[in-house]
Amino acid sequence: MRRLGIAFVMVVLTFGAMAGSAAADKPAASTFIAVLNSDNETGVCAGISNSARGVAVFHVTDEATGTVEWRLVANNLPGTTSAAHIHRGQPGVAGPVVQPLVFPVGNENGVIGTGTFTNPALLAAIRADPGNYYVNVHTTPNCPGGVIRGPFGDQGP
Questions:
Q1: For residues 103, 109, 110 and 114, what is the CA-based torsion angle, rounded to 10 degrees?
Q2: Could you read off the pLDDT of 55-107 as tens digits, one per residue?
Q3: CATH number for position 139
Q4: Residue 39's domain spans which residues?
Q5: In this predicted structure, what is the pLDDT of residue 32?
Q6: Which of the four pLDDT bands, split at 50, 70 and 90, describes residue 27?
Q7: Is residue 7 in some structural domain?
Q8: Of 30-39, 90-99, 104-113, 117-126, which range is least confident?
């Protein structure tokens, strides 16, 4: 009976170690998505265009350097694009810019911009607390402070 008890403990310890190893080996998220709309925006332009929508997709292409490729698509913007950024901030709070998304400005609909940036510290911070970061798009002449905004949500391998 004692042998059976020892064998049971060994099996439990083995599976526990395997589960811990599997959790440690889980790959970090390599795709981040932010769904943008005017209802999420704060400030003067909040809700100015209830039909403005967008999505930003970020894909990690090099874990070692923290290099990320991104694509931003939007439609029904009131005006032409003047800027887009990743900000740090909780929902409903305007936060500081932590990463500009550089692209040719002046688009109104469709693919607003694509690009690449390298920022390993930001990548680690978003992975640790995605809900504390958001993407927003600015337009001229109507909404230089931001017209659509969306927090990072879904993360995938």
A1: 10
A2: 999 999 999 999 999 999 999 888 888 899 999 999 989 999 999 998 888 87
A3: 2.60.40
A4: 28-156
A5: 93
A6: low
A7: no
A8: 104-113
Asked if the bond preceding 120 is cis, omega within 30° of 0, the reply is no
Buried-state track 121-143, b at ≥16 Cβ within 10 A, e below 16 = ebbeebeeebebbbbbbbbeebb
pLDDT at 6: 36
Q: Is the pLDDT of residue 115 over 90?
A: yes
Straight-line distance from the first to the last Cα atom of the chain, in angstroms, rounded to the nearest whole number: 46
**Is 107 within the bounds of a domain?**
yes
Report yes or no: 51 and 72 within 8 Å, Cβ to Cβ: no
- Cα 98 from Cα 134, distance rounded (Å): 10
66: left (phi over 0), alpha (psi -120 to 50) or beta: left
Sign of CA pseudo-dihedral 45, 47, 51, 56: positive
On the CB side of 58, CA atoms within 13 Å amount to 31
Rounded to the nearest angstrom, the gap between the alpha carbon of residue 13 and the centroid of all alpha carbons in its chain is 38
Answer yes or no: is 108 within a domain: yes
CB 55 within 8 A of CB 73: yes
CA 88 to chain centre: 11
